[in-house]
């Protein structure tokens, strides 16, 4: 090893092989062209402990692809669902409507429609084969900035059926006076029912949703049943009810019997409406659970069963429908309020509304305030 004036000799050959400048002959300035760096076997000259640029680009491409696919699936599902909605109710035909308030009000109706049912199914489900149209359940669901409120309207409520525009003729029809609430639906369907509810409450109905017997049972069966915990058992020869107390899973047939039974209860229709609220909220809660909502094998059959039989207004869309079900889920989980329309007594065998309380309730709903009205029934 050579050494000059105390400076350690440098191994120029080693520096050259490692990619440094070649040694300079004495008296010649400048350097030779640098030899390309040759990485050690298995090494990476750019590996400085930071993620490789190529790897980062690959990850971004994968994430972008997944995002695009997700948007296509969500968008496709939305338009598929929207195309299957039966938008058959024209609320534009309802006359003399109340002004709009805060939040959104859904009129949810369970009808006795036997559309698509065979004679054997009518017998199995104890629906009978009555002609015409009727409704066993009517509810107003208010969704706003706060907790949702679900209000049952007993079918035997004593109300005034006002003047209305015929849904088919388009002509104005005179007022029909005092009647049961479900008579409005029997006379002229969803439009007159909406008109009657708005006239007697002063609350504007923003959306309408109705499901018949067969559709209701199909939705429950598509879910694999609905888990219910009954406080007490009951039997009813009219509806075919025969339930034991405790936890159980109701299939479509049993669920329909459960929500239709009223003769087994001392409160008759008032007790039935409470069972209807409990069941529909429980169904919505299970339908929105991760085991259903994130499982395409359960979600799409459920959506198909519901969409094919659900009758809605012309302005309804999958977003509003989903908002409605999520609000009912919140009611089930205790984040909302459920009640019957306040009742003060009876008139000719029909249930009379407690109008001071109804007025207070409607004012709270219109202003999207917390509901403070209570009802003992």
In one word, what is the shape? globular
What would you call the structural class? alpha+beta
Major sheet description: 7 strands, mixed
The helix fraction, in percent, is 25-40%
Low-confidence stretches: 1-7
Q: What series of H and E elements makes up the topology?
A: EEHHEEHEEEEEEHEHEEEEHHHHEHEEEH
Tally of DSSP helical segments: 11
Mean pLDDT: 83
Report strand order across the widest sheet: 3-16-11-4-5-6-17
Beta-strand residue percentage:
15-25%
Over the alpha carbons, how many angstroms does the gyration radius reach? 34 Å
Span from first to last CA? Answer: 107 Å
Instruction: Give a count of the beta strands, DSSP E runs of length 2 or more.
Output: 19
Layout of helices and strands:
Blueprint: E1 3-4, E2 7-8, H1 12-17, H2 53-84, E3 86-89, E4 104-111, H3 119-124, E5 135-143, E6 149-152, E7 158-161, E8 164-165, E9 172-173, E10 177-180, H4 181-201, E11 207-211, H5 213-222, E12 226-230, E13 234-236, E14 241-243, E15 246-250, H6 252-260, H7 269-287, H8 290-293, H9 296-307, E16 311-313, H10 318-332, E17 337-340, E18 343-347, E19 350-353, H11 355-366
Parallel strand pairs: 3-16, 4-11, 6-17
Antiparallel strand pairs: 1-2, 4-5, 5-6, 7-10, 8-9, 11-16, 12-15, 13-14, 18-19
